[in-house]
Amino acid sequence: RSTxxxxxxxxxxxxxxxxxxxxxxxYKIIEEQAQRLKIAVPEIYITSGPFNxxxxxxxxxxxxxxxSEVIETCLKGNYDVLRYVTAHELCHIKRKHISKNxxxxxxxxxxxxxxxxxxxxxxxxxxxxxxxxPKGSIEGILVMTTGKAIHSKFNFxxxxxxxxxxxxxxxxxxxxxxxHPHHYNRLIELKKYSRYN
Length: 197
What we know:
The protein contains 9 helices and 4 strands, in the order βαβββαααααααα.
């Protein structure tokens, strides 16, 4: 599961492992989040790549892979986006989304049901990411939409209004073929969620 889809590469051997000694500030954030979620701290790695992260499982061990552009967003001391991304991914572990995949095989007989479940998982994890970092959740999705260099230049409310106005049948249909919701739908859902939190 990932915040956005990109090709995956092997974690061990092609990445730098985050520990209490290596990137200790990042490790501490993830450790504290894992404690709050009452899960074990997974193995954590950084590798070169676009803004993204995902969790996977090797044997019984969970692995959290963070691409370098996520880390780059916090190099100037702003850890909001990182907190959103890592909490989102840890929620996949907490909710056992990876383990449940093997039980979803019968649902593949029903068109689009597995994809709908996957999008639902993403909404769930976005809400947990929001709980850990409200500001970072919005910024994180905007970074996925526009890139880390210009995401802060956009008017969030205007972007949502324009997206809703241009949302037609084909845009709606295209999402049914995706594992992740359209970015503007994730923003809309977070906005709704924020009203109750």
